[in-house]
């Protein structure tokens, strides 16, 4: 099945509300892309609770996506700081 993340609502009707878990591997690490994948995942995951009162579908995955995004952003900022320190050290050597 073809999927265009720019059209997150364009999944076939027969697939909506039919999955217990959705695993997402977005092609880009941007908030916009992840939000579109999350919108599609919400359409695909089952809704409601089972006989034991547990939620159907794994909405916790969205929390992990936000955490992962934050970790990646912090790592990128740390790398930028390290590069600036290294450049400053190189300038001092000259």
Written description of the protein model:
There is one protein chain. This protein is mainly alpha-helical and 94 residues long. The chain has one domain (13-93). 51% of the residues lie in helices and 0% in strands. The longest helix is centred in the last third of the chain and has 34 residues, at 60-93. The termini are far apart.
Write out key terms for the chains shown.
elongated, 2 helices, mainly alpha, 94 residues, 51% helix
Summarize the structure.
With 94 residues, the chain is an all-alpha fold.
Provide the fold topology.
Layout: H1 31-44, H2 60-93
Poorly predicted regions are: none
Determine the fraction of residues in helical runs and give it as a percent range: 40-55%
Along the chain, the helix and strand elements come as HH
Radius of gyration from the alpha-carbon trace, in angstroms: 20 Å
- Indicate the overall shape: elongated
**Gap between N and C termini, in Å?**
58 Å
């Amino acid at each position: 099945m073809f999927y265009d993340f720019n059209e997150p609502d364009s999944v076939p009707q027969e697939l909506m509300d039919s999955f217990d878990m959705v695993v997402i591997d977005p092609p880009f690490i941007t908030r916009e892309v992840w939000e579109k994948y999350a919108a599609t995942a919400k359409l695909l995951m089952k809704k409601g609770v089972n006989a034991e009162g547990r939620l159907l579908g794994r909405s916790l995955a969205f929390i992990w996506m936000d955490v992962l995004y934050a970790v990646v952003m912090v790592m990128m900022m740390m790398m930028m700081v390290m590069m600036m320190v290294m450049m400053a050290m190189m300038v001092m050597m000259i």
